[in-house]
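Reopening: 7,8-dihydroneopterin aldolase still failing for me.
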Amino acid sequence: MDTIHLKGIRCYGYTGVLPEEQVLGQWFEVDIVLWLDLSQPGESDRLTDTLDYRRIIQTVQQLVGTSKFALLERLATEIANSILEPLPGQLPIQQVQISLTKIAAPIPGFDGKITIELTRPRIAP
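Support: Ran it again with your exact input. Result attached.
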């Protein structure tokens, strides 16, 4: 199986447990790995035969920017589910891995990052 990596998608969003996180917001970073078969576009060299990853980036930006979940786990799950939703005319994504990072978590004395990583397969209908 082949992969496409989308790294460093930075978005401003409102997910967090603290009330001020859902009002003031903060920066997040999303990295995505998509598993799919790229043999056809590898031979044809046609954009219509591959995945339009601009759609994936726009979906992530929209979800991070409009969601107000308490947990990163919930936001990461919503991103994964939306990416795995099959779209007509698009290559089917067999599996997705999401790494969702809260760049500056409001935890006293902690200057690091917090990342949630999850991997989800596409469940056939």
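Residues 56 and 83 are 7 Å apart (CA to CA). If you still see a failure, please send the error message rather than a screenshot.
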